[in-house]
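Step 1: inspect the first sequence and its tokens.
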Amino acid sequence: MTETLQATYLMPATVHEALDMAAQHQGHCAFMAGGTDLMANRFQGNNAAPVLIDLTQVSDMKGIDQRDGYLRIGALETLHQLAKSPALSEFTMLREAAHSVGAPLLRKTATLGGNVLCENRCLYYNQTEWWRESIGYCLKCDGDICIATGGRNACFSELVSDTAPAIIAMEGEIEWVSPLGTRVQPLEAIYTGDGVKSKNLPDNAIVTAIRLPLYRNFRHSFHKLRERESLEYTSLTLAMAVDGQGNGKVAMSGVDPKAVVARWAAGALDKGALLKQLLKGARAVDNDMFTRGYRRQMVEVYLSQALGKVVW
């Protein structure tokens, strides 16, 4: 276990310097910022990259400003900063989502980029190495079976980001950089639905910012299911936003390897069809402290509460 914690530690000053470092250690490095997710996985033996590239000194990944009709939020902004930022007055659901993550000490360190990229979790995977060896290795750690389901074809470790559903519901985008240049795409597009390789990003990509569209006049509702108000990862997060024209979007995490997303056009809301679509997308299995059945029941509860707040 001690060997897995040893690493060469690099600290670039720019994004391009970080990309150069990653190219020099292709396949043997991991990017880190706040480290609240990465370091926990290293202590559990789930990440043993021999090179760590610390991005915290990259100034281009910090700050909040308006550009081209979007609010651009640097990926290195901490969740504590976001939860209190007056710059997010038009997007208070993101402040609420940031405040819901972990405990105050964690939010002081954890970053927005790290939260949208946090590794998928499962009750049978996020344990000590000794525990995983005793129960048997699963698909996510080089085994040949999903312990939660007994199947051999799919890993159902869950997306547990709380900021991601809020960003997605408000039509947010992710900005990332690779050796091929800068790309911007809808945030939901980066989640694959495969619990083993959960992000559709190149291994050497660096997420630099999140972008939210300005002047949409969103009404919103945010809900999170967890055992305790602090520390716990989500068992279900549901975020809903309706813009000034009446177009709506809802996104969920905690119930599938990817974000579960549904939308409706102004004047075309059908609650029954919306619930059916969300439940169809939520492939929750019993790999969480709450049962699959209970979490699916809470999807309907949270959906009704959200609709009551922002639509009816």
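Step 2: inspect the second sequence and its tokens, then contrast the two.
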Amino acid sequence: METQKKSFIEKYVKIIVVLAVVAGSSSGIFGSLIEAPSMAIGFWRLTMGLPFFAIPVLAKKRDTLKAISRKDLLWTFGAGACLFAHFFTWFNAVKMTNIASAVVLAALHPLVVLVITVFVLKKKVGMRPVMGIILALLGGVMIAGLDYQQLSTGNFAGDIMAFLAGLFMGLYFAIGNEVRKNVPGQTYVFLVFFACWICFAIGMIATGTPALGYSTSDYLYLIGLTLVCQIGAHAVFNLCFGHVDSLYVSTWESGESVFAIILGIIFLGQFPDSGEIIGCAIVVIGLLYYNYYTGLAEKEK
């Protein structure tokens, strides 16, 4: 019996996920350069990113849209709403509380995915992979430099926003992992981005945020944000679902802070202190530990 040839994404999916995390880690750099309000940033990154998937799907793959069940369609739009909610709560969190608290609380999404995986989807997750996840999260705490004094000086409402950002990211990943089993990648990305765009369009109208009138540099940085983060990270994450578990994607995404520090050194000349370096090492060890034991578990299947 002839075995089916694996696609490029399926063959190198774990490497692609890591590269997507690297791309996503640049969002902080773009965010620091763009002066437009967060609602406008979200609206434009979706407006610019949507055509890359809408045009090919509507032109050549309309049959895939017709084949989607109502249940999968609703869940897909739910994922898009969760993506919008993640962006909205995260952008507000970093304005309402200190960055250390926001980073750590928002990075808890692997625990959200872990809970859904074990208790909702009834999937078995070994203790060693879980230890890798916890180790990576602890490293993230060290990178953020979170201590009691910093937490106490943060704004409680902002901390809640950051926690919700992590919660919505976890839901977004978990839903995508399940729906992608039935919906083709390109079609799923188009629908998720479309749903998220609708939410941002409503948000723009509701808040009276102007879409135009920003500086030329803002629009150039928005193009970069769209290509690198919206397409290079979020679109790729969704394409990878169906080939790798959402817990794997979420765990590696929690290591985004390490890559953000590396990019900060390269592009902004911001060098980490000793605590951040130790935290980076712990995150890397945790992710490698997680990756090694999930790999062993897959071989044993």
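Step 3: confirm your contrast with the notes below.
The two ends are 20 Å apart (CA to CA). Residues 8-300 form one domain.
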